[in-house]
Amino acid sequence: MVMKNPKLAQGTRRKLVPLQVLVPIVSTVIALGIGLLIIAATGASVVEAIEAFWDGMAGSDFNIGASINRAISLALVGLGFIFASRANLTNVGGEGQIAMGGMFATAAALHGAGGLPLGLAFIVPLAVGTVAGAVWGGLAGFLKAARGTNEVISTLLLSFIALPLVYWSVESFHLLRKPISDVSSLPESAEIPDSTKLPLLFPDNGSPLHIGLLIAAIAVVVVWLVLKHSTLGLRLRAVGLNATASRRAGMRTSFYVILAMTVSGGLGGLGGAIMILGQQLYLTSDFSSGYGFDGLVVGLLSRGSAVGVVIGALLFGFLRSGSINMEISAHVPSAVVLICQGLIVIVIAGSAILTNRKVTR
Amino acid sequence: MIDEQMAVFIGSGLRLAVPIIFAATGEMLSERAGVLNLSLDGMMLMSAFTAALASWATGSPLIGVAAGVLVATAVAAAQAVLSVTLRANQLVVGIGFNILALGSTTFLYREIFGPLSRDPIPGFAQLNLPWLAHIPVIGPALANQTGLAYVSILMVVVTWLILKYTSFGLAVRAVGEDPRAADKAGISVARTRYLGVLYAGILAGLGGAFMSVADSNTFTENMTKGAGYLAITAVIFGGWNPWYTLAACLLFGFATALQFLVPALQLDVPVALLLLLPYLLALVAIAGFVGKSRQPSALTIPFERGG
Amino acid sequence: MALLELSGLTKRFGAFTALDDITLLIERGEVHCLLGENGAGKSTLCNLVFGVHRPDAGTMTLGGEPFDPRGPAEALQRGVVMVHQHFSLVPNMTVAENLMLGRASAVLKPQDIIVRMEQLAAEYGLEIDPEARIDELSVGERQRVEIIKCLLGDPQLLVLDEPTAVLQPDEIDALLAICRQVALRGKSVILVTHKLGEISRVADRTTVLRQGRIIATVAMEGADIRSLVRSMVGRDVQSAGSVLAAAVDIEGKTPAKSSSDVGPTSPGEAVLQISDLVYRDPHGVPRLDGLSLTVGTGEIVGIAGVEGNGQTELGLILAGLAAPSAGAIVVGGTQVTGCTPQEITDAGVGIVPEDRHAVACIKELSVAENLYLGAIGKFSRFGLLDKSARRKAAETMMRDFDVRASSPDVSMASLSGGNQQKAVLARELSLDPLVFLLAAQPTRGLDVGAIEAVYNRIRAARDDGLGVLLISSELEELMAVSDRIAVIYRGKLVGELAAGSFSREAIGAMMSGHAHV
């Protein structure tokens, strides 16, 4: 017999709410502190490293714009993660969904979409990329619903399948590889037509910030509304918590599992398409490298909150920009940031026992 | 000519399978106890780097292996504390350790080896067992392996014996299937799971060390390239049975080795597609199209004693 | 000297005090029964003795030595063994493997266990195939394995937590006989039960628990059963009527039906018609084997049977959670065979399922969300939830059905079992249209007050013209509430009794497959 006491359960939860905010902040600060110690231990000048880091993050309009552009894609992957986790599904395949989104967006931009009227020219590749990511995520949802396949493993494997596909597409002339010229023979696609590039928000001041920011902002609001205030959000939650009871209550549980993974993957695919159309402008085999896991970490840090995703995405967007500049200017390997990220994830996961008494799966 | 290429193919298939065999065999035991270590890849990477470093510093590949195993076991201990004692989400913790391993090995590699990354690391010699070499076609491939490769098969046998004939193995199976029942039979669920995870760490350490000091005699950034994930997949593919898991590892090894064989045979198959073959096979396998097997009931579920 | 001495034991779960200052002696060679309602603290007491939980205050001694087990392992070492309410056997392992678990040497020696099993078979008549897998065994056989596991190490104290709830009558007899034999060998037995009949047959002494406190400890020689019952539920037997009888199962005393208990003499037209229903489980084993049944408007039809004879499967099929292999189900003229849960609900079927936590509610969601789980879209505009309208409607429903919670927004998990069940009833009885209600084991795990409320709701539904199918393993409950009782045995109905002709003996015989009517 398990005794439950409503008063106690509520009391502890209420008391622990600040912890849920506190833990990510404290662990981020600790991890960054350790990062600084490591930099100091290498004998590099910490001041110089921090200066380079800051300069890379926010030293100029260009750098700020580039940092935010990174954050846009991370936020979309993170939104996808929390969308799936609302249905108790863990989508760790962001990397593959970005890759598929980026690859198909490139293909759409290079083959046909470039000639469309200006508005459609970038919307079509964005949509194609989104659908590609959605299919990739939905596939994991389908396997879960139809075959009971654990989505953590299947999304991981789908990522490992997607990456060689991108490699194949930029390596094969009959696919997306650009013809070898005297200037370049690298395995990568041609640059996408100008009309398919995402319009810049501030074209005059040199900032690369593009309208992906608006798309991401809309996505944040929509995901927030759906998860917190919609009938769909409640159904996803019900299905995730107890599939049998949800089925008894008339919900088609398989449908919601597939839907959750499809939307989740679609957000990742959109993130990938925005990366290509907004920043990279041509496809390389490793364009998505690291973004999937960064996005996953953003999703984890947010603890299911869309606002948390925004904060986490900005944090990692700026961290990435900073670390790249730190490596170039101060010669400190950018891998330090990876170390910090790993520590953040571990500390937050480990402190779940403090913030959440419920056994997590 | 064809024979020669087959021999090379089999030899490289086996070599590529060995680290996965080590890691998957240990992981299988850990999963039988209910803990999934997504951090397997991180353990292997840390071990590969540490083994390379220690071997380079001391000149002894054996010390390298010992150091690699030690570090991987330390990662496993941390994973165990988090996933058993602190009941953290095993998958998330695993991903965290993989990011940490990638970051720290890349960082240290650039700091320590950066200027001399072309120097080979002292490694093991191949054994060249004459009595094996006489077997046609596969003989030379079997005989030209380092001692560590044979140890991997030995570990499969040992693991099988542990699970089948020892009370620790019985405890492992019970804890992974029904921890509450095991607890009430007087078995320490936490202790059994700790030992399972540490066992996975030791074997992943051997697998990682094999990559740097026995196979390639060098370390490269992110050199495991997802081998740990492949090992986890092999466990699922193998239905949590040591022999089927071994078979899955060999299959993955040969599937990976195809990327060397196919161009050599001048077949027109894109290498990129060969790269994804093992993962595609694995996906098909776990989707249950290759016979369905049941995973341990309590896999990834933390245990908390209650009424 | 007493074997086990408990003094001042207190156990709290959060702010809830499950056990309060328990002081008790267990003598050597006695069978000591613990009697009490659900939630009285019986299981908690056992779990303290077995080291599953640790007390917040108080001490224990075992054989005169201090006893403070930090876990089952330590309790086992001191010779305390326990058979749990829920079996603790690993299902995909063999009997021998389960018996070796936790006590074998480094290398397994199955031969030693088999020899010991043969000894126990000779001593107590406990026979079982050591190579059989647990999931292939019947419930009774599994319990035998549990008891063998306990007796293997020659224990001092055997604790049995509600061991008879899942057994057939003859299996219960065998179990009680084993308890006596164990006691005869100088060991002590603690037997938890809420069935008075068992107590009078086996106990030397009985301790009554209520709300975590000891109300009385009495020697059974010459004890007054009625006063025991009174102390157990805290009120007089007469006033509680049939409710009490069902809750505590006073053997052989069939409660007389009061006039309000009896339904209309002639039921109306059929609302539920089941014909030749067959269900094979995934392993191909037939669980329902040509079951036919009709329920009319305004009647309560009870299904009696030992658990595991197809009741669970019948409940799942009626809920739309399992598809029958053959046969037909018609509700109010609509074919619902193999239909989805939604289609079945639309046909006017309300379901109070056997497994409340797995099927009826989502404990992490709020009470309001659970009350409208099947009608999430009812309070919404453009797909967005109108939470205040839902809260208002939920408050009304909670008032109508006496669901006690501080607010509709608290989680379902924070409600007592009785209030959870009342919420489920509220939801299902508020369905529109509604012509038929399935109530499967509707009072399991509830306290007396809630049981009474559930019975009243079911009777009121019948009086409103609903057809009700009541599946229960509590015979007294069926006899108190049903207008008609059908008996299920091995997947089909083997007999039926009309109101006024209910008899324990007749139903019991049919339940065990010994007689047909």
Describe this entry's structure for a reader.
The complex is a heterotrimer of chains A (361), B (307) and C (517). Chain A is mostly helical. Chain A has a single domain, classed as ABC transporter involved in vitamin B12 uptake, BtuC (Orthogonal Bundle), CATH 1.10.3470. In chain A, 73% of the residues lie in helices and 0% in strands. Chain A has helices at 6-41, 46-58, 61-86, 94-110, 118-147, 151-171, 212-229, 231-241, 243-248, 253-280, 291-301, 306-330, 335-350, 352-355. The longest helix of chain A has 36 residues, at 6-41. The two termini of chain A are 23 Å apart. Chain B has helices at residues 2-32, 40-58, 61-85, 90-113, 130-133, 138-143, 147-165, 167-177, 179-184, 189-216, 227-237, 242-264, 271-289. Chain B is built from 13 helices and no strands. Chain B is mainly α and 307 residues long. In chain B, helix 1 (2-32) packs parallel to helix 7 (147-165). The mean pLDDT of chain B is 87. Chain C is α/β, with parallel strands linked by helices and 517 residues long. Chain C has three domains: 1-79 and 156-166 and 184-234, Rossmann fold, CATH 3.40.50.300; 89-154, no CATH class; 265-364 and 432-511, Rossmann fold, CATH 3.40.50.300. Chain C is 34% helix and 25% strand. Chain C has helices at 42-49, 72-77, 95-100, 110-124, 139-151, 169-184, 196-202, 225-233, 237-248, 311-319, 341-346, 356-360, 367-371, 387-400, 417-429, 448-463, 475-481, 504-511, and strands at 4-13, 16-26, 31-35, 57-62, 65-66, 80-83, 157-161, 188-193, 205-210, 213-219, 270-280, 286-296, 299-304, 326-331, 334-335, 349-352, 380-381, 384-385, 436-440, 467-471, 484-489, 492-498. In chain C, strands 6-7-8-3-9-10 form a six-stranded mixed beta sheet, with helices on both faces. In chain C, strands 16-19-20-13-21-22 form a six-stranded mixed beta sheet, with helices on both faces. In chain C, strand 17 (380-381) and strand 18 (384-385) form a beta hairpin. In chain C, helix 15 runs parallel beside helix 16. The longest helix of chain C is centred in the middle third of the chain and has 16 residues, at 169-184. Mean pLDDT of chain C is 85; it is low at 237-247 and 249-265. Chains in contact: A-B, A-C, B-C.
